[in-house]
Amino acid sequence: MGVKRAVEAAEKVAASGVPSCTLGELIHNPQVVESLRERGLPPVASIEEAAGRQVLIRSHGVAPEVIEGLQAAGSEVLDLTCPFVAKLHRIVAEESAPEIPVILVGEREHPEVRGTAARAKGPVHVVVSPEEAAVLPEMERAVVAAQTTYPPDRWEAVIRALRGRVRSLSEHCTICSATEIRQKEARALAAEADAMIVVGGRNSANTRKLYAACLELCPQTILVESAAEIPPAFANTGVSFIGITAGASTPASALEEVVLTMTDINNQVPTSDAADFTMDAVAASMVRIRPGTVVNGTVVQITDDEVFVNFGYKSEGIIKRSELTQGDVKENDAIEAEVVKVNDGEGNVVLSQRNIVNRKAWEALMVRYEASEYVNGIGKEAVKGGLIADVEGVRAFVPASHLSPRYVEKIGDFVGKEMKLKIIEVDQQKKRIVASRKAVMAEEAAAKKKEAWDRLEEGVIIHGIVRRLTDFGAFVDVGGVDGLIHITDLSWGRVKHPSEVVKPNQEIDVKVKSLDRERERIALDYKSLQPRPWDNASEKYPEGSIVEGKVVRITDFGAFVELQPGLDGLVHISQCALNHVAKVEDAVQVGEIVRVKVLKVDTEAKRISLSIKQVLEDEAFGDDVAEPEFELVNPEEVGAEEAAALEAEEAAEAPAAEEAPEA
């Protein structure tokens, strides 16, 4: 990855025409270096030679003071240090200290090792083998890291030797994963092949180690920098299987040239297939990913903006932080991601975790959609015609007409609001859904209504909430359905308007009077659950007691006084005043509060005889009241004509229940 990144960046710089150079050879491959030189990007050996030009730092990296010197000389620096090498630099810089030595495992004169050693804050020891590690002086503490191209199979042997010399050893295997994978696969290929060709620069440590690894398993192994170096008789030695591999710093063009040359010789494949064996076929055999492929890999490097993942491909994958959903990731963590692009134009494989999350969220939503289940959403943005909502990680559109059963004036009121939704339309191709809140409310109301009807029976007492009042009664919500309390069923007394008895939102207990399931109408009764006024009238209003009441009706024969709702007493005309009056209105008026004396209570006949006159006499004369000069008329002896008139009057004032509007 680091080499590829450096070469591609250098080619762009060469094409730009900006005066530039590389500090030392960009990579260990003569063909690439010469090609860049011809295109105006030569290598230079010193800061002085680079002064005034844009300078490309090679993939091996350099010491910090070198970059500082270039900048001081007026050079613009483009740092192309391999991310794996940069990781090595960071470990040494962070963990070393004047009292903590650094042990680097690698080649002493390699540019990468020299650049890394320059970052140590204390002593540095470089060892290239287990034998050298075994003779180091004993140390209390030390930090050990490896050159990124050090042979992985030798690392453990070095570590074992160091553990015998260092009491507390901080171990960091910084070997590039690509190096390890390439050497492992090359060994497997060399174990099967009759002959091997290793393509790469002879001064490349990575290529030399790859060549040495193949040579151990396949004696007929050659190292070439280009196809022209392949011996003419190499393919004519009777071998039937020739393997080809390349060092990390080998450009793709050099590998293609070798493969096509061997194809032309036509020894490694049957003649009938030779025409179809092209570099495209080779590339196709190497590429096993495409956009949408889910891969599993290991985190090999983390930067502020990106996470690099090794998943066994020829180059690492890159996940932008914005596409990462796993939370805090660390190096060596296992990670699952989806391929977004095989090549982003710079040779990088672009990966995303968010795509996997989104796809899983979509699949889960589709299961719920097929099952007609509700989903949870949060309003995100008011747009023309409706609301954009986040439905469990998927973007959804809720039309304004589906936000509520009633007209919604301000859609913005739903932004940030959690809501239950039903998916009503799906676009599989665009991964879009249309959802409805109104549908949920309608279905829940219907279910609640059915449940309410199922538990309703005539005669049962049920709790309810007064929702609205009309002139003829009160509508009460009894658990999802409304029933009507007719005005005549609100109170035992006379009621002009339901507001005299109940108020909106008041919670009350009611009795189911009747049910009409076909027409969905419920008649309720409230007064039957209230005490009957006449049940304890004689105890509450004993004969001889003086109480207050309100004049509610006047007839020719007297005035009716309301002692409490549903309980009226009669003051006969002869008992309305101290003196004889021709008309009741000459003594009292409707609505007037008067003090009366209870003369007689008949609970069976539901009649109470009252007297205003006797109260006035008691107040005026005390107990020495003279006998009246006229005969007292007993209320019980009021004629049948007067009683009939009273009953007719009461019937006229109370409208019949069956004439009221239906619930």
List the helices and strands and how they pair.
Blueprint: H1 2-16, E1 20-23, H2 30-38, E2 43-44, H3 47-50, E3 54-57, H4 64-72, E4 77-79, H5 83-95, E5 102-105, H6 111-117, E6 124-127, H7 130-134, E7 139-146, H8 152-163, E8 166-172, H9 177-192, E9 195-199, H10 205-217, E10 221-224, E11 242-246, H11 252-265, H12 271-274, H13 279-286, E12 294-302, E13 306-310, E14 317-320, E15 334-341, E16 349-352, H14 354-370, E17 375-383, E18 386-391, E19 394-399, E20 418-427, E21 432-436, H15 437-455, E22 461-470, E23 473-477, E24 482-486, E25 507-516, E26 521-525, H16 537-540, E27 546-555, E28 558-564, E29 567-572, E30 593-602, E31 607-611, H17 613-621, H18 640-653
Parallel strand pairs: 1-2, 1-3, 3-4, 5-6, 5-7, 7-8, 9-10, 9-11, 14-16, 19-21, 24-26, 29-31
Antiparallel strand pairs: 12-13, 12-15, 13-14, 15-16, 17-18, 17-20, 18-19, 20-21, 22-23, 22-25, 23-24, 25-26, 27-28, 27-30, 28-29, 30-31
Task: List the defining traits of the structure above.
31 strands, disordered C terminus, five-stranded mixed β-barrel, 29% strand, 18 helices, alpha/beta, 663 residues
